[in-house]
Design brief:
Blueprint: H1 3-8, H2 11-25, E1 28-29, H3 30-37, H4 41-53, E2 57-60, E3 63-66, H5 74-78, H6 82-94, E4 101-104, H7 108-115, E5 124-127, H8 130-136, E6 143-146, E7 150-152, E8 157-159, H9 161-167, E9 172-177, E10 181-183, E11 187-190, H10 193-204, E12 206-212, E13 225-227, E14 233-237, H11 243-250, E15 255-259
Parallel strand pairs: 4-5, 4-9, 5-6, 9-12, 12-14, 14-15
Antiparallel strand pairs: 1-3, 2-3, 7-8, 10-11, 11-13
Helix pairs in contact: 3-4, 6-7, 7-8
GO molecular function, one term: DNA binding
Domain HTH deoR-type: 11-66
Keywords: DNA-binding, Transcription, Transcription regulation
């Protein structure tokens, strides 16, 4: 396609073409799309961001892939089970003392938990999540420690060696973890090994471990990266979870199940 024809193509038509290319090719890169459509990489990035928010595709590192086979973006997950996540977050917030130090994983439910901690004078929150950092950015009463490293744009959480190094220098009273999926035998499922490695370290640095997972996460394995569960931990889920889904977790030695 020539530069002239690419510049004349309406934005809607260009995005429809991008969606078709992603569907046909399975994955595409920003630079590849920019060259083939004769527009700038920044234009393609804006197109991909909009298409991701519309649920038509999912972002990858440097490009995009079909939404049906990819990790959902944080924006997409924010719109799912919102009431259930808030109930879980409120229950978790009630378990946190004002003078404690807690670790909050990246995610939507932990972001809601951070929202309910904004007025906790004397509390220390350690987090790798943009959602939690945003909620606590102007909460002057709360001490915030960011586990900054390489940002995963799709999940808006920091991971990698720098985040792990900071975490290795800290201990906490409690850790609250999110999950893309949760299996009683394999543990917490995530899209990236960087995520599961950081979760493992979070578990090691806290005295009490809580996994905040709405009912849709129980017994699911959308990806193939896993963080094992500790001997003693608490699952906090919502009332739409069935007895059948909860039974394998209740049978685990050392596991406690809370339904809110």
């Amino acid at each position: 396609m020539s530069t002239e024809s690419g510049q004349r193509m309406p934005a809607g038509q260009r995005r429809a073409l991008i969606e078709r290319l992603v569907t046909e090719q399975g994955a595409v890169q920003v630079e590849q799309l920019a060259a083939s459509l004769s527009v700038t990489p920044s234009t393609i990035r804006r197109d991909l961001s909009l298409l991701t928010e519309q649920g038509k595709l999912a972002r990858t590192y440097g490009g995009a892939m079909p939404a049906a086979t990819a990790e959902p973006s944080l924006g997409q997950r924010t719109r799912l089970a919102t009431a259930e996540k808030d109930r879980i977050a409120r229950w978790a917030a009630a378990r946190i003392g004002s003078a404690e130090a807690v670790i909050l994983d990246a995610g939507t439910t932990t972001g809601r938990l951070a929202h309910h901690l904004r007025d906790r004078a004397g509390l220390t929150v350690i987090t790798n999540g943009i959602t939690a950092l945003t909620e606590l950015a102007d909460a002057d009463a709360v001490r915030v420690i960011a586990l900054a490293g390489e940002m995963r744009h799709i999940s808006q959480g920091f991971v990698g060696p720098l985040a792990e190094l900071t975490l290795s220098r800290i201990t906490a009273d409690k850790v609250f973890l999110g999950a893309d999926g949760l299996d009683p035998r394999l543990g917490i499922c995530e899209a990236s090994l960087h995520q599961t490695r950081l979760k493992e370290l979070m578990v090691e640095r806290a005295r009490e471990v809580y996994v905040l997972a709405d009912a849709s996460k129980l017994g699911t394995a959308p990806f193939n990266a896993w963080a094992p569960l500790p001997r003693s931990w608490t699952l906090v889920t919502d009332s739409s979870a069935t007895d059948e889904a909860l039974a394998p977790f209740r049978a685990l030695p050392g596991a406690k199940v809370v339904v809110v």
